[in-house]
Protein: ALP1 protein
Organism: Chauna torquata
Amino acid sequence: MGKAQKYVLLGDATYPLQDWILKPYQEDENLTQRQLQFNYRLRRAHSVIENAFLRLKARWQILLKCDDCSLELLPTLVLACCILHNVCEAHDNPFNEEWLEGTEPTELPKPCQPAPAAMEDGRAEQVRELMCQYFESCGEG
């Protein structure tokens, strides 16, 4: 859209809107078609992320029992699994669907209450609006 953007994380409605956290528009009857499309695209992206984490945990099942290792080792363990997983995926190493049998999608911890409006960053609405325009310009998909 002609404006360089930095990376953002995807959040749900419980997170505050920040210029580095994209969250959906609040679902109500006043949403425009463009805002509904934005929310749909965000949900689709979120499902891709969940699937990627599910495949990562299925391939490297040590991640299912990380409570067995020390907290100091944990970041290195997760990073190593991510790197090895990406190498396997890049080289078309077959993914065995049976690995998924012992792996259930898990709800990631998130805030219980929606973030107060005071935590929201006014500039973040511009980022969300730019993304909304971008999704609209891409058409369906």
In short: Residues 33-59 form the longest helix (27 residues).
